[in-house]
Amino acid sequence: MPNAYTRNHVVELTEVERAELTAMARSRSLPAALALRARIVLACEGPEAASTEVAKTLGVDRSTVNKWRGRYVRDRINGLYDELRPGRPRTVDDERVAELITKTLHSKPADGATHWSTRGLAGETGISKTTVARYLKAFQIKPHRVESFKLSTDPLFIEKLRDVVGLYLSPPENALVLCVDEKSQCQALERTQPMLPMGLGYAEGVTHDYVRHGTTTLFAALNVMNGQVLAQCRPRHRHQEFLDFLRAIDRAVPPELDVHCIADNYASHKHPKVRAWLSQRPRWHMHFVPTYSSWLNQVERFFAIITDKAIRRGSFKSVKELTTKIDTFISHYNENCKPFTWTATADSILQKLARLCGRINGTEH
């Protein structure tokens, strides 16, 4: 039989409350304690639900069941959340916090340092370094970090941006869109000592010094539609090599397809001989990304992949060994390649640029 406590705290749920409690009980994102309290209330529904049986079923103490069923009857769902507990009063008032934030954002240390440190701010403001660190974290201020950026000075930035992004989002029919560029100065570096193998608890080890055995230039053309890469390694980086690479692309692309080639503004790409060769081939269409905007060229992402996975941590005794490694990697890459998915529209990029300009407006720039 239900005891007096149970009769005084009968849990009656509406359909909305039952659905909300069920969702809380099944949630994997809410705190485990909150989900348990929801299960307790659901198990206590009805006048016949005894706290002892509920506690036995859920594996908790009977007093815990009584506590949360009583809180729910009194405060409903809001009663399941933890109440604010009294603590030590604040030792730093709002004015001192504002002074700390202002000093961090709008001043430099007197010793000539480029940015504030936690200990420097603590010594300047009289606030403990742990408190300074806590407020910097709360306001998401990171004076120890720096991010690089470069605004394009191209007068035709918007026109070129819309042109290139348009090719990514809506490629023309009966045409192939290729992102073309060169990764110059790929160095054949031989480590002076053998690499230490990776093991349990420690990473692979490489020496910081090396012997140079020469360089090569990787010419690459990325097919935007399927992600395949056509590449060549050449000893030099001139318009002659670039023109030879364009000829190789021309032979590889079926004659019935137009070629839309996205490239940067490197001088060899606009050499008179290159222009003359292109003028004799009407199916070729060159699209140049804006100045300082190589991030628009998708082949740069492939260069990052091959650098990370095949070049940076390698040790090569000759340029030939390096080029063989590059050719082998590209061959395997093309077997399971996938295209990069471009989602940003030209308008979204311009809006992001506007936000950046708004942030730096009024600064020393």
UniProtKB/TrEMBL annotation:
Family annotation (Pfam families): DDE_3 (PF13358), HTH_32 (PF13565)
InterPro entries xref list: Homeodomain-like_sf, MscS-like_channel, RNaseH-like_sf, RNaseH_sf, Tc1-like_DDE_dom, Transpos_IS630-like
Domain Tc1-like transposase DDE: start-end pairs: 177-322
Name this protein carries in UniProt: IS630 family transposase
Annotated organism of origin: Pigmentiphaga soli
